C-alpha cells in the first residue's frame, strides 16, 4: 500500500508540473490538440499509480514526451499560420449580417440548437440581436451585437469616469502577502497600523485586507462584517 | 526562454533514460546469455548433473540475474522479467533431482528469453509498431 501511496504522490506531482509547463491556457481554453493531450495524460497517469508491476518510469517517460511534443507543436503553430490552422482550426463566422451561415454550421458539424445555446450563453436570446457570431478554435462563440442591442458604455454617454485600479491583497486568510506590500508601496508597519486602528490584535484573525490605488482599504475579520477605510485615516 | 530550458532538461532526461535502458538491457542480457551458454556447454551430453560445479554455476547465474533485476525493475515491466528468474529456480530443482533433460530444456529456455527479451525490453521496430 505504501508503494501505491508513494507512486500516487509522484504521479500527482508530475502531472501538476506537466500542466504548469503547458501553461495556464490549458485549463480554460483548450485547442483540439490540447484536449487530446489532456485526455491522454489523464489516462497515462493512472497506469503506474495502480499497477505495481509497471515501473513509474513507464508513466513518467510518456508524460514528459507528450510535454515536449506539445511544446514543439505550439512553437510550430506560432511560427506557421498554415500549420496552426491545420492543427487548431481557424475561427469561423457562423452568423453574419445576412443571418445564420448554414454552410459554416455544416462545416463545424453543429446544429442550430447548439448555436442558439452558445448565443444565449453570450447573453443574447434572439438571432436578430446578433450582428456577427464567431466560433473560435477553442469552441467558444463570441458575439458582436447589432448597434441597437449593444450595451451602453460610459464612452457612449460621454461620461468622464475616473479609472479604477486593481486592489492589491495585503492579507489573505491571516497571512501577509509580502510580495504585494511592495506592489502597493506600503510596509508591514502600515498593515499593523491599520489593524491597530480597527482594534485587531492578531493578523491571523484577518480574513482579507486589500488596498487600491486610491488608498481605499477593504478589511474583514474572520466571521465578522467587513469595513472600509482609507489610507489617510490610518496615517 | 524559461520553458525552452525546461524542455531541454526534459529532452536530456529522456535521452538519458533511453540510453541507460538500452545499455542496461544489452549488458545484462548479454551477461545472462554468456553464463547460460557456459552452463549449456557444461551439461551437454551429461546424464548425471548432480554436481557441485554445475550448482555453483547456476548459483552464480541466479545471483547475477537477481542483481541485474533490481536495476531492470526501474525500466522494464516486472512481469516481463519473471520468466528468467523462474527458470533459474527450476534449474536448481533439476540439479537436486538429477533431471538432465529438464535441465537442458530449462537452460534452452533461458537462452531463448535472453534473445527474445531484447525485442520486449530494448528498442526495436517490432516493439514500436
Mean pLDDT of chain A: 85
Question: Helix and strand string of chain B, N-terminal first?
Answer: HHHHH
Strand order in the sheet with the most strands of chain A: 6-5-7-8-9
Note the main sheet of chain A. Answer: 5 strands, antiparallel
> How many β-strand stretches of chain A?
9
Quaternary structure classification: heterodimer
* Annotation, overall tally of beta strands of chain B: 0
Rounded to an integer in angstroms, the radius of gyration calculated over CA atoms of chain B is: 18 Å
Strand pairing plus helix content of chain A: what structural class?
Answer: alpha+beta
Number of domains of chain A: 3
Helical fraction of chain B equals: over 70%
Order of helices and strands of chain A: HHHHHEEHHEEEEHHEEEH
The helix/strand class of chain B is: mainly alpha
Number of helices of chain B: 5
Distance between the termini of chain A: 59 Å
- Kindly estimate the percentage of residues of chain A that lie in beta strands according to DSSP: 15-25%
Which shape of chain B, going by the Cα principal axes?
elongated
The CA-CA distance between the termini of chain B, in Å, is 35 Å
Any idea how many domains of chain B?
A: 1
Any low-confidence stretches of chain B, pLDDT <50, length ≥5? none
In short:
With 235 residues, chain A is α+β, with helices and mostly antiparallel strands. Chain A is built from ten helices and nine strands.
Identify the notable features of this structure and list them briefly.
heterodimer; A: 235 residues; CRO Repressor; 3 domains; 5-stranded antiparallel beta sheet; B: 129 residues; elongated
Please give a structural write-up.
Chain A is of the alpha+beta class and 235 residues long. Chain A has 3 domains: 2-86, no CATH class; 91-157, CRO Repressor; 168-234, bsu07140 like domains (CRO Repressor, 2-Layer Sandwich). In chain A, 48% of the residues lie in helices and 18% in strands. Chain A is built from 10 helices and 9 strands. Chain A has a 5-stranded antiparallel sheet. Chain A has a 4-stranded antiparallel sheet with strand order 2-1-3-4. The N and C termini of chain A lie far apart (59 Å). Chain B is mainly alpha-helical and 129 residues long. In chain B, 87% of the residues lie in helices and 0% in strands. In chain B, helix 1 (2-43) runs antiparallel to helix 4, helix 2 runs antiparallel to helix 3 and helix 3 runs antiparallel to helix 4. Chain B has helices at 2-43, 52-75, 78-97, 100-121, 125-128. The mean pLDDT of chain B is 86. Chain B is built from 5 helices and no strands. Chain B is elongated, with a radius of gyration of 18 Å. The longest helix of chain B has 42 residues, at 2-43. Chain B has one domain (26-121). Classes of the chains: A alpha+beta (235), B mainly alpha (129).
